């Protein structure tokens, strides 16, 4: 699969000035101050509890979530929760500010948590312009084009930036990845609840968790995607360039939880150990200290292309869709934003 130099160079900032300075700060002065944008998700409550734990050690140590900007949009998951979550955070001791610039002025790094991915592009702009290292919670953006535009802007401003679902770092996925009895992973299947959100590709809101887990097992390199939509579920099958096959089942009705199977050259293994926020927060902490993203821009962009290709396959009645075509279209749209 071909990517432009812009995409391939995104987020290879192992020794960026931002990362180095934050590592030095945490070692010699007060804790690194974290600010949150978007207080309309349960993550906005969970993450401060992890980072602000006085017993935190290792990559979770030397951080303090100090302030938040509520944000919010008209979708029910935002509109119906932002006020309650904001009040909880106020009671936890966070300063609540009325604008993103006011937040940026008082923190060192940013967690962009807004539940509505459609506004991530606009919310990320002032953060990147201010040079603040940035983690963007799932989905990276409301469209593939927006995600590419964010990564492009981050590269241009030399700002560390990455996005990931917590399921990528779940105990079950880590066990499968490190299971030597499997041999080489030749294929995988994951499943997860899959509700939709109006205004974004179907998989962006919740299916992304299971698809991120699929990519954690398979790695990048998907060539084509086919989607079958039934009354109760979506079945999305990707064929990788080396012939491997990965499948995601998005469950929309009946019993729904997480699971994964890895098909190895020497064995097959299954897990149903779901997500935990602490492993992801540990990766975020390491990222804030070093400036190095644990997930490349290339892989995140391909993962989003996988999901947009699934929508296109649905539109075409289940026909195979090449990711390179989806990427080319999104790249043209992203170029018009910068």
Keywords for this structure?
338 residues; alpha/beta; Rossmann fold; 13 helices; 13 strands; 39% helix; 21% strand
Q: N- to C-terminal separation?
A: 24 Å
From N to C, what is the helix and strand string?
A: HHEHEHHEHEHEHEHEHEEEEEHHEH
Number of strands: 13
CATH architecture title of the domain at 5-166? 3-Layer(aba) Sandwich
Spell out the CATH superfamily of the domain at 5-166.
Answer: NAD(P)-binding Rossmann-like Domain
Main beta sheet: 7 strands, mixed
Question: What would you call the structural class?
Answer: alpha/beta
User: Helical content, roughly?
Assistant: 25-40%
Q: What share of residues are in beta strands?
A: 15-25%
What is the CATH topology descriptor of the domain at 5-166?
A: Rossmann fold
Question: In DSSP terms, counting alpha (H) and pi (I) runs of 4 or more, how many helices?
Answer: 13
So what's the overall shape? globular
- In the predicted model, the low-confidence regions spanning at least 5 consecutive residues are 1-18, 23-28
Rounded mean pLDDT is: 92
Name of the CATH first level of the domain at 5-166: Alpha Beta
Strand order of the largest sheet: 12-11-7-10-9-8-13
Q: What gyration radius follows from the Cα positions, in whole Å?
A: 19 Å
Describe the protein.
With 338 residues, the chain is α/β, with parallel strands linked by helices. The protein has a domain of 162 residues: 3-Layer(aba) Sandwich (Rossmann fold). The protein has 13 helices and 13 strands. The strands form two sheets. The chain has a seven-stranded mixed sheet. Strands 3-2-1-4-5-6 form a six-stranded parallel sheet, sandwiched between helices. It is globular.
């Amino acid at each position: 699969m071909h990517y432009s130099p812009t995409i391939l160079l995104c987020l290879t900032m192992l020794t960026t000035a931002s990362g180095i300075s934050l590592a030095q700060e945490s070692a010699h002065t007060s804790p690194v101050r974290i600010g949150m944008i978007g207080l309309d998700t349960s993550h906005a409550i969970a993450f401060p509890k992890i980072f602000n734990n006085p017993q935190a050690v290792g990559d979770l140590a030397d951080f303090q979530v100090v302030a938040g900007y509520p944000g919010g949009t008209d979708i029910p998951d935002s509109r119906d929760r932002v006020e309650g979550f904001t009040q909880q955070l106020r009671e936890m001791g966070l300063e609540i500010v009325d604008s993103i610039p006011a937040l940026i002025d008082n923190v060192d790094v940013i967690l962009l948590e807004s539940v509505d991915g459609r506004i991530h592009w606009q919310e990320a702009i002032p953060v990147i312009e201010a040079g603040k290292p940035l983690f963007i919670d799932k989905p990276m953006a409301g469209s593939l084009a927006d995600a590419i535009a964010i990564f492009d802007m981050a590269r241009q401003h030399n700002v560390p930036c990455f996005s990931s679902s917590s399921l990528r770092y779940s105990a079950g996925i880590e066990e499968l990845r490190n299971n030597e009895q499997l041999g080489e992973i030749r294929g995988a299947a994951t499943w997860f609840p899959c509700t939709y959100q109006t205004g974004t590709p179907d998989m962006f809101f919740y299916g992304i968790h299971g698809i991120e887990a699929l990519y954690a097992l398979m790695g990048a390199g998907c060539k084509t995607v086919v989607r079958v939509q039934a009354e109760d579920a979506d079945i999305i099958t990707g064929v990788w360039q080396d012939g491997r096959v990965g499948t995601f089942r998005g469950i929309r009705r009946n019993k729904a939880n997480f699971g994964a199977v890895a098909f190895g050259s020497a064995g097959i293994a299954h897990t149903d150990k779901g997500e935990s926020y602490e492993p992801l927060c540990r990766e975020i902490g390491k990222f804030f200290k070093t400036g190095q993203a644990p997930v490349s821009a290339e892989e995140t962009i391909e993962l989003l292309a996988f999901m947009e290709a699934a929508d296109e396959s649905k539109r075409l009645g289940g026909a195979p869709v090449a990711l390179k075509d989806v990427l080319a279209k999104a790249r043209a749209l992203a170029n018009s934003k910068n």
